[in-house]
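INTERNAL TRANSFER SHEET
From: sequence group
To: structure group
Subject: Galactose-3-O-sulfotransferase

Please process the attached sequence and return the structure record in the designated field. Keep the field labels unchanged so the import script can parse them.
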Amino acid sequence: MFKKRFKFLILMIATTISLGVIMTYVDFYQSRILPCFQVATQNIVSTTTDSTLRVYATCGHKFEKRRPGSCNKHNHVAFLKVHKAGSTTVMNIFLRYAVQNKLNIVLPKRSTGFGFNYLGYEETVLRGNLVPLPKNQTYDILCNHVIYNRTAFRAILPNDTMYIAILREPIRHFISSGIYYYVFDEFSKIYNTTNSSKAISTFLNNSSALNMATTYFHNKMSFDLGLTPSQFENITYIDNYIQELNKDFALVMILEYFDESLVLMKRYLCWDLQDIMYLPLNSIGEVKYPMLTFEDEKNLRKFNFADFQLYEYFQNIFWQKVQAEGPLFFQEVKHFKLIQQKVKHYCNSTLRSNKSYPPLLVPRSTWNNEFFISHSDCKFMSQDELSLMHNLIEDAWGRYNQSLNTKL
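Return from structure group:
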């Protein structure tokens, strides 16, 4: 009898606890999970018929979908154009955006001559070297080659300017620079060998013994970002300087993850998908890359210590930013890659043909509003930097001179 009563008592206690847990969960669901889910689903826009969107909406997890048109575009941007890091392609994106949105670009005074496209050739930006603006106007976009300097940049750009840069894996950057600037050919002449890999090994084994300019391949990325050559071997200074750069730059893109970088940039700037479409520019093309040995790479790490520190630090920061975007980020990247391939195919076809191709329609999706890519868009995306810069500088001078004449 006692055992039956004891079992009954245990059953009643268990039932009471279970009901309490269930009621607590129901209350939790109604007050926390359900509202979160409702907010999430309200943010979903219609998708294309062949795609679906999973809703990631859990208590404590911010719904990270950013629908097109849900925020205001950021029009004040400084892009640090780092040499041989895919920066010409990114520059074209910013120039196209600026032209389409009638923004003021920071442009050098000269439109011809050696290095005319630089805002500062191995120096930072100075207002006196720029195409002036009509009265009461401000610069919006900076994206030409120039050495970064916090004070100089802030002296000419609005306070809400977003700073963006791009970096490349240092070994690949060294090889790309060596080929592009014919440095390895020079090595081969100096060391009297036709084997470029052997010439590179000889140089890296004793880099200080060679009396030649090393501007384009000695910590060049760090130099573009404002690190002075006198500090190239100062470990403490380099670490502190990188920390300061991290405070200034909202995003440092990584060339090896170019599309991921562009989608992240699009989100940070609240731009549209059409704003980041591109055609690759200024790439070396099909060439035979020299092979570096393990010893070569170890010596290169010493020679370009600052660049390795810079890249490894910001690559880590980059993936932290990607992770913070949530699981839908990679769905958007996948979608962008698909559209990018269609745009590339269309542009290649229309640019090679004399026929009049109708604009390419990109339908509305979760990640973009409907938009068109035209033949003229393709021409702009494929135009070489120097001719494009010449035209933009001449146009900017025309607007400035017209503003003076209007006052008269």
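Handover comment: Residues 2-42 form the longest helix (41 residues). The chain has a mean pLDDT of 85.
Transfer complete.
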